[in-house]
Amino acid sequence: MPKAEICKMKKTIALALSLCTLASTLMSCSSSDAGKYSPEITVSSSNAEDYAVWLTNRLGDKLTDSIYLALGSDASRGIDMTDFENDGYILRTEGGSVTVAGKTETGLDLAVRRYANAVEAGTASELDASYHEGYRIEKLMLAGHDISEYTIEYPAEHNENMLYAVSEMQRLIKKACGAELDAAQGISVRECAIEFRHSRDDSLRYDGYRYFFEGSRLVIEGAVERGCMWGVWFFLENELGWECINYGNSLLREADLIEVNADCEKTAVPSFDYFDPHVTYGMKTDTERYNPRKSIDPKYSYGAISYACHGTQMKKWGGYNTVHYQLCYTDEGVFYNVKDDIIERTENALAAGSVIGKDLKSVDVSQGDNGDYCRCAECMKVFKEEGGAMSGCVVRWANRLEEEISAEEGGKYDGLVYLIFAYMGTQPHCRTAPNENVYLTFAMNGTCSAHGINSRKCTSRGPLGPVTEQPIINNDNFAEWTKGWCDLSDNIYIWYYGLDTSVQQYTIIDAFFDDIKFFKDCGAAGVFLQFETNGLGMQPVWGQLAYMMNWNPDMTREEYDLALEHLLQKDYGDGYGYILEYLDIWQESQDKNNCWDCWGFASILSNTYDTEYYAENFDRSVYLLERAAELASSKAQQTRCELLTAHIYYEGCYSSYFRAYDNGDTERIAVLSERYDRIMKILAENRINYKWMNGGAAAIQTNLEDSAWLDWIKVRDELPCGDVRRPMPDKYSG
Fold first, then answer.
1. 709: which DSSP letter?
2. 697 versus 87: which is more confidently predicted?
3. What is the pTM assigned to this prediction?
4. Less Cβ around it within 10 Å: N or C end of the chain?
5. Which helix (H) or strand (E) holds 442?
6. What is the mean pLDDT of residues 264-282?
7. Three-state DSSP class for 253?
């Protein structure tokens, strides 16, 4: 059956996400007997009263139907929830009478929200839905055979990644349709089998996969390192419609029938050999995989070479700790101390059973997190020989380490990869190329996040670092250096910043598409995306988009924009259109302020956005996000909206307070104060410690007035026009 026909057969559903209960945000009620809650709503038990409160508050005089709310099975109303999943629910409309029943509070939460949104949309009379009764897919057919007829087979020669892929296929097929597939080592001739194979096809690189049918047998073939894992995930995504199964909060829609025909085939290779959208999301409602490499046992990522990360300060090779200084890369004593330490530690690992190239893959000897480079005569000599690039000292040193250690004991340590940085003063590429087993991570530290790396739109901003012949830098320089490094080596990784540690946020959604395309076109081997977040921004959406781009190298801008819309709908709910409108305001506020550093979030002085424009659009932005939260299809979606709203409140209060203060507008200040108080409420409800944000980031106090006069001291005389000297209130001046 064509996929278009399959889609037509799917039931109407709500988004199925990991949820937390509604109790924390709804009015609590005292215990009472089941019965009439209001003229419009009857509840089956006291456990459903919170949802009656929510519906009443949400709909007000729009609540005209006679509604019966049930939690769990209710024989008196003919409601049997035995075969429903925990998030399952029933919606029945008969005339002006509506039955809303959920298997658990999670299901009832989904149901009442769906009903409320339908009332507002004028479609409540059409509701007649059963959600998640039984499994998401009622019947799954492969090449004309029911999935229950299949077993899984894998060869005697396999790695841990293939075993993990087998277990994932078993787990996820059972979750989707209930079928429990047996798995066994050995390849048979049986008609119905899912056969796993390793491929030696170099074109698949490390992660590539292909799947196809041989008769009725489904073959999943992957690159030896980790292709089978991706093959399983993408077979389920592409053919069963299981969205974001490999990254983010997944969504499997309900279907009566899914048919995968015998002519189905797919081959895919990602854009990069290494790709890591590093999202550490603080929301308790988000429990699914946001980083597949870190959510599974490392052994299943067989063959992966990681990015560099300040190895000389973290590992303290040779007894050195480069937190506050860098090694002298031309000192013989330093070199041999580091070399001997690497050999000793490698020997210990080998003695413990490690294997070079498998679980012992690399040695991180990258520089410390500072720009304090040695300026001795020998180091400066190399600096000049390398065309004024301090990176030359680092590359020459790492090359020599790799060469001498590889030559030890007849090549005993051959195959170890050595990780180094181009970072904080060493970004300009040198003349000496890194050896084949020297991998360099080029950190985009200091780029302008307002523009794409290769956009040619940046203005001059400032010096790169203490040792450089480059007095002024902008993204033009970073584009040149990216190309230069990729011309020197096939093993260049990119460290890309999308930072977040504060209520002050920025968005990269406009430039991100072009940047990933640029890195691919340059020939970068890997990309590490630092999307750490406390939950107040949209980094998880960026991460999901990143994965889509990695596996779709030819993605167009139109496809990217459509993917963004789809992800916003999945993660934020029915009000995603309001989020999109806010994104336009957010982006425009940044565009109007020209260039700013990727670390600009860390200080309110950075002024990453146009405060006049933001103040003018503050009320509209608040409305958009609060409306999106109201229309959320689940508590998890509502929470994401509220967390993003906290950022809007902060940016808006910052932009607007002194305008109101100068005008003596006490009513506006009262509104701003209320919004600021909501920041603290949102942070408290989500267990985000506001005090932690004060460590160099945009500081935040418990109330608006204190933040305005204590945290914004350096800029308060620049808002709104730069000419006003405001005397500090007596309570702060002392």
1. I
2. 87
3. 0.88
4. C
5. strand 438-443
6. 86
7. coil
